[in-house]
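Run log, item B.
One chain of 223 residues. Sequence copied directly from the ordering sheet:
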Amino acid sequence: MQWPWRLRRAADEYEEAARWSVRWTGADFVALLEEQVRQLERGMKEWTSFLVDKDPSRLETIDAIEEDGDRARLAVVRASDDHFITPIDREDLYTLSRAIDAVLDAVETAMVEAAQHAMDYSAVNGVVAILWAAVIHIRAAVAALLTRPDVVREEAVQIHRAAKRIDWAAREGLHALGSDGLKDLDEVRAMIFAREINHYLRAIGERLDNLSDILAEIEVKSR
């Protein structure tokens, strides 16, 4: 346990380090990473709206958002390549940026694949709700990246828990679909569809879990 004055001093030191990192590198890496998170939030808004209105134009929009996410990731890579000094390890910047982009890619894939089938699958709504909470934790972790390692650690734990809940929601959705046994061809088709969509839903959870691990590793290095 650390004394309160030591915690305050540590927080002050991290804040000062964050200010100096921008001054020396000329690049605000936190802002660049936050732009990636913003694209992820845009993708989530499109998926949420699609679940309500089933507007096919949203599938084109999510594709454009994914491209914007790629450009935001490229901005992080270019900034880290252009500056000799970076606030955290350059390899960690690459890895974290790639992990955020991977979540957006998984969201786009799951949304598009689920839209290919006419039936509704309750697990999708559950996963979207959990993922929204995870995105809030991702944003908080990125915002605290250079100043509050204790916050990064806690947010990484919350992201990990969200990943596990997504996996559970996907499994439960499949179980509920077949709990009374399959009675006809339509129910068999629904089960096949659900198994296919579960693959993409669980991929989102896996990528969230990977992002959580990366944040935890960065936090450990910052101690």
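Observations after the first pass:
- Confidence is low (pLDDT under 50) at residues 1-7, 20-24.
- The CA atoms of residues 27 and 81 lie 11 Å apart.
Flagged for discussion on Thursday.
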